[in-house]
Amino acid sequence: MENLIVAYVGIAIMIGLSGIGSAYGVTITGNAAIGALKKTDKFGNFLVLTALPGTQGLYGFAGYFMFQSIFSVLTPEITAMQAAAVFGSGLAMGIVGLLSAIRQGQVCANGIVAIGQGHDVFGKTLIFAVFPELYAIVALAGVFLMGSAL
To answer: Is the pTM value of this prediction over 0.85?
Structure first.
């Protein structure tokens, strides 16, 4: 039973930190969007850029569903090694999700400010915003690989 608790603490860290990062990221971009809307009405562009950092929280949930559905390791019979793998992958996904969402929010906020100043940088901002997203995807792939090794 203790092993299951360790595994679920890892899951909680994964979902919690990824979700916190997304919350910070979308508020960073949302604040920039509110300011930029005072100068120009590019609400559609701002909406897309504001929503981008929210995806890291979804990756945290995806990691949970992988362990619950695909790998089915979250049972009372979980071994210490399996619990350690779930905890470790949850910690890694949580930290990467937290930091990549915040940094992606900052990249998108800078793009929003530039669009508000009249520059045509929406597409370029999307391209730059993909880079922090990549690391969250790599972390989710790590969760998948650790889960499939169980």
So the answer is: yes
CA angle 65, 66, 68 (to 5 degrees): 60
Q: Could you tell me if 53 and 131 are in contact, meaning their C-beta atoms sit under 8 angstroms apart?
A: no
Q: What is the pLDDT of residues 5-53, one digit of tens each?
A: 999 999 999 999 999 999 999 999 999 999 999 999 999 999 999 999 9
Cα-based torsion angle of the residue sequence 91, 97, 103, 108 in order, rounded to the nearest 10 degrees: -170
**CATH architecture for the domain at 2-149:** Up-down Bundle (1.20)
Structure-block tokens of residue 142: 């790590």
The rounded distance, in Å, linking the Cα atoms of 63 and 15 is 8
